């Protein structure tokens, strides 16, 4: 019998919509600048360049309806609403035509970012983890199984802060589509069941403060509600 020097942490997981089951999370991949308008607002060329990814830790996942604790070390905390792709199978060097076979379902997430710390890291040519991979930085709503909703390729992506619309986009505006993201990632990582992919955010990102309530939606997928505390 395996013996640990202390009790291992609980398995990070996301609810599955309409059931009591949980989706066990393995890795959390996030694609950067996957909507042209967001690339422009961040000061980058919107033309189709090779995709790039960063990671968040699975224990950064936060269920919908929970309070998100404002993180330390920042005065410029930004929201980014995103569709989340949940893999139920894995593989390496997955052909694009077969990539959707790996998908278990889809959810709605928020990529919280300590923008001031991310900007400082960029300026110093350092990794982004301090700006992206902090505690509770990846709220995620329930996963809707693809067997029920299909594979969304279009649909409104929105986020409201205190009832005011801040982000509006559409899944068909993604530069790199879901099959392309999966195929590309599988060239550099062995993907596995439990992997989550945050698929990028439309334009309109901005700062929030303590007390703000965020309501995000992806048409045909679901929603997420988070209060900054």
TrEMBL record:
Family matches, as Pfam families: FAA_hydrolase
Keyword Metal-binding: yes
EC number, as in UniProt: 3.7.1.20
Record keywords, A-Z: Hydrolase, Metal-binding
InterPro entries named in the record: Fumarylacetoacetase-like_C (IPR011234), Fumarylacetoacetase_C_sf (IPR036663)
Leading EC class: hydrolase
SUPFAM superfamilies the UniProt entry points to: FAH
Domain annotation Fumarylacetoacetase-like C-terminal: ranges: 28-228
Keyword Metal-binding: yes
MF-aspect GO terms: fumarylpyruvate hydrolase activity
Protein name (record): Fumarylpyruvate hydrolase
């Amino acid at each position: 019998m395996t013996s640990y020097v202390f009790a291992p942490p609980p398995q990070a997981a996301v609810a599955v919509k309409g059931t009591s089951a949980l989706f066990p999370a393995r890795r959390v991949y996030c694609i950067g600048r996957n909507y042209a308008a967001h690339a422009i607002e961040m000061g980058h060329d919107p033309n189709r360049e090779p995709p790039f990814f960063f990671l968040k830790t699975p224990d950064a996942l936060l269920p919908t309806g929970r309070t998100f604790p404002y993180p330390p070390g920042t005065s410029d905390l930004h929201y980014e609403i995103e569709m989340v792709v949940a893999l139920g199978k894995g593989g390496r060097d997955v052909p694009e035509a077969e990539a959707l076979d790996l998908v278990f379902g889809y959810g709605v997430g928020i990529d919280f970012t300590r923008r001031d710390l991310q900007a400082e890291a960029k300026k110093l040519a350092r990794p982004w983890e301090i700006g992206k991979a902090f505690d509770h930085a990846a709220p995620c709503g329930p996963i809707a199984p693809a067997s029920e909703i299909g594979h969304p390729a279009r649909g409104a992506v929105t986020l409201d802060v205190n009832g005011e619309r801040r982000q509006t986009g559409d899944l068909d505006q993604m530069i790199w589509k879901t099959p392309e993201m999966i195929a590309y990632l599988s060239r550099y990582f062995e993907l596995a069941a439990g992997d989550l992919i945050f698929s990028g955010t439309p334009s309109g990102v901005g700062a929030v403060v303590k007390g703000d309530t965020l309501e995000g939606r992806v048409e045909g997928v679901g929603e997420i509600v988070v209060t900054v505390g």
